[in-house]
Each structure stands twice: as C-alpha cells, then as structure tokens.
Design a protein that fits this description.
This protein is of the alpha+beta class. It has one domain: Creatine Amidinohydrolase (Alpha-Beta Complex). Helix content is about 30%, strand content about 25%. The protein has helices at about 5-25, 35-50, 115-135, 145-155; strands at about 55, 65-70, 75, 90-100, 100-110, 160, 165-170, 175-180, 195-200, 205, 210-215, 220, 230, 235, 240-245. The strands form four sheets. Strands 8-7-9-14-15 form a five-stranded antiparallel β-sheet. Strands 1, 2, 4 and 5 form a four-stranded antiparallel β-sheet that branches. The chain has a three-stranded antiparallel β-sheet with strand order 3-12-11, with no helix packed on it. Helix 1 (about 5-25) crosses helix 2. The longest helix is centred in the first third of the chain and has 21 residues, at about 5-25. The chain is globular. The two termini are about 30 Å apart.
Length: about 250
Amino acid sequence: MIKLKNDEQINRIRESCKMLARVYEELVPNVQEGITTKEIDRICHDLIVKRGGKPAFLDYDGFPASICISVNEEVIHGIPSNRKLKSGDLVSLDLGIDLDGFISDSALTIPIGKISAESQKLIEVTRQALYDGIEACKNGNRIKDISAAVFKMADSNHFGVVREFCGHGVGFGVHEAPQIPNYVHPGPNPRIRKGMVLAIEPMINLGTEHVNILDDGWTVVTEDHRNSAHFEHTVAVFEDHTEILTTLN
C-alpha cells in the first residue's frame, strides 16, 4: 500500500533530507585517494549522530554499516572495508538518515582523481537520467513515466540499465511502495499523487545490465565487471510541483 504523507509529515521528512544533504556536504571532501571506505563510514556515522540523527541503513536487514560505498563495478550495497581508494576509481555513496522516525535517502557517484572519458560520461548520463526521472514525476502522471524517462536517457547512450533493483517510496520506512523501476516493466503502474514521497535512483552500467550478488550477501556487481554509477534523490509530490528534498536549496 502506498503511504501518502500530509504537509506536516513532509516537513518532518524534509528536515531529515536537509540533514542528509548537509552530511554529504561535509563527507564528500573526505572521499579522496588513499582513504579507506571503512574510514568514510566512520566519518559519516559521526556526522549523522552529531546532528541528532540515526544512520537508517545501519543494521537494516543486517547491513553492517552506516553508508553503502560501492566502487567501480560494484553497483549498490557495497560494505565499507579496509579497501583504499585510488585514482581512477568511481565511488558511489548511498545514505539514509532516520530523524525521529522520518527517513531520507540519497546517492551520488564521484570520481577519484583522473578517470576515463567513458566513466565520466557514465556519471553525467546517470545524473541526467535522475533529473529526467524527477521531471516526469508529476502529480497525475504514472510511475512508468519516471521509468521511461530514466531508461530513455541511459539507453540512448548505450548503457545498461539495472533491472533487479529500483527506486521506491520512502519517508516512514527505508523502503515503501511503490517500486520505481528504471525501465518500463510489465508490473503495476500507479498514478503519481499529491502526498507521495519517492526515492528515484537510476543505477546505470557501462556495459551489460546484468548483475550478480557477492558472497557477502549484499554487494551487487556488474556481471561483466565494468563500472557502474548511481544517483538518487528523495522527492515529494505536491499538487502543482515536485520538490527535491535532499538538497540544501
């Protein structure tokens, strides 16, 4: 069941989202060559707690960290470790914050040092696919309008669109209905309505759309081991506009 939010509830979710954006603002400058992903996780955890929030992903279904950090061929759900980042890496950060029971969710992919031209294009296309999806997320449209917009941008650039994982409702829980695939699927196609709060999140690969899950039970990697990128915002749908909540603007 899709849980619609009233204005006061959206205000509380917005507070969580602004906190998340501030955490990213302080965290991202630390994501540099030589740092370990475990150290990024520690910094992230401390930034959240300092502001009075809780890491929404920590212990969620057993996930062992405060942030998902996925490098290169890792698509999503990468577990922080002693791995050191190096020049040429693509690093996807996926973070959720629980602020007094109201959940925010956002992801971004950043380059470390000098990256290849094709990886830079992958970042740019995936980011644009997110904003194309948000543009289609309007009161009265349908979920598949978002899916079609994301897929069109990625497919027109000959990139693979991950199908096994998708965007979703958010706000009261980490994952809520509806699911928001990044391709036009044969499943349900609910109308987008005022009060929906959605996490739209393209996961786009340089090569194949196919992915595998590693033995840790979490880390999703591309089947051909080529790079992947991931961008995500939490948005709220109003009668006459859709607001991106996970920005500082």
